[in-house]
Amino acid sequence: MQISVPRFLLQTLNHLYDMERKLALHGDAAGVLRNIERIKDSISEEKLFFEDPMGQMFNETRVDLEASIAGEGAENLYVTEVIKPIIRFGDLHYSKVIQRGIVVVRARAGLDQKEQDQQAGEQQ
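The chain above was modelled as a monomer; its predicted structure follows.
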């Protein structure tokens, strides 16, 4: 089933994600985050929301991300930069990807097998 979402809604969600990220980095002196949360709540009533994949493990089987690999190595990859978030239709338990996230990934150095297994379990 193909879900049609107006382009302006996708752009709005992308801008909201970018604003949240900037506020997290630079602080929220004016209390803008509260307004952003209200806008996200309004949009979520239409079953649209975004997911921030920052810090998540990445492998080539993920269909919700388009990744560029930075640095050396192609194992133990994790998301180091999010250019566009994953936009989903549905709820937290069951959703369909409307927009694949665009990310930069990098190899994580020094993880032993136990740490890799633990991080893989956290994603599920």
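The chain has a mean pLDDT of 87.
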